[in-house]
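Q: I have 411 residues here and want to know how they pack in 3D. Can you give me a structure?
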Amino acid sequence: MSSKGSSRRRFLKEGVALTGLAAAGARPGMGQVETSQVVKNTRPYGERSRFVTSARIPDDPTSRSPAILTPIQDSAGIITPSGLHFIAEHYDGVDIDPQQHRLLIHGMVDRPLIFTMDDLKRLPAVSRVHFLECPGNTSLRRSKNTESIQQTHGRTSCSEWTGVLLSVLLRRAGVQKGASWIVAESADRARYIKSIPLDKAMDDILLAYYQNGEPVRPEQGFPLRLFVPGWEAISSVKWLRRIEVVDQPHMARWETITHGSIRGDGKARWFEFEMGPKSVITRPSLGQRLPSRGYYEITGLAWSGGGGIRRVEVSTDGGRTWKDAQIHEPVYRMAHTRFSLDWTWDGTEQVIQSRCTDERGDVQPTLEQLAEVWGVDMEYWKTTTNNVLKFNPIFRWRVTRDGSVQNALFS
């Protein structure tokens, strides 16, 4: 008889004995009854437990239409519940009657087409898991003077999106020679317009009408939204009503003024589409506190508009040494990817951080590397009033001796 086999049998016997003791000890008055309530399962749409309080928070309550931020620090796995998905709108949203909604495909096409929602749902559907990220997520302004990771990183979420590929509709319409862009327009009062290269439209852009197995919610563009995988969220037009095929970008106000990225030399870039590789440790993270020294699982999320995440490294000594983190399945292209690393905190001050590498070999940059690309010195990040967008440096959290977690990005 092997020692391994006998140890396993002993463990099983002891486990059974402990189970019996636990069952015998679970008597009224031991804490179970006082904290529970009888719940009748008669709700037509399910609700979460009253003990679960994780919620979105407004980014700027004084804004005319503030963004609502995902509690990324409370996430598990990679899917963001629809009710916790971040919201960003140019004006108040709209709830459209799907029976009255129409999608127009026109411009440089052989056959202008109009689709009802029933028409779209008759076409072959696909489901894809992708992240959505606002270019203002982790912007330079949000990376300073914030109290929680939800404020710095709460403008990204990840869902399963279901709908019909835009390429199917464009092929039916017949794209004419010389066309190189599409212009997508929303049906809300903002009449938001976004220009997108035709190559991307014929590749993987989705006309999404389902999110996480249910119809897309009104704040996410019900009954139909454009979804552009891997690109900044401002490309994924909500409440989609019109797509025009053209030979040049529209150069709308949203593209040239509102969403321009101001560089260190004062110039602005108008069209920056793909989101760069980014990762962040979500536990422990800014705004949290470790109750005592000992074992913790460092965990976080990584994502990239350049494809799937292939490697995540974690440092617990301020970047002097790095260890490969465990990447959790499933791993999808252009989706959040969960990673973790075992860690024992000894009670001393430590700086923890993560960096990711995507399938193309692109590595999340340091703040110093970004400064070199921008042609600025490190002091620029601390003093500039420009709100740098698509800012993806390695984020650093300082775990202090009392267990509180602080932002160490600029120190």
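Q: Anything worth noting?
A: The longest strand covers residues 156-165. Confidence is low (pLDDT under 50) at residues 1-33.
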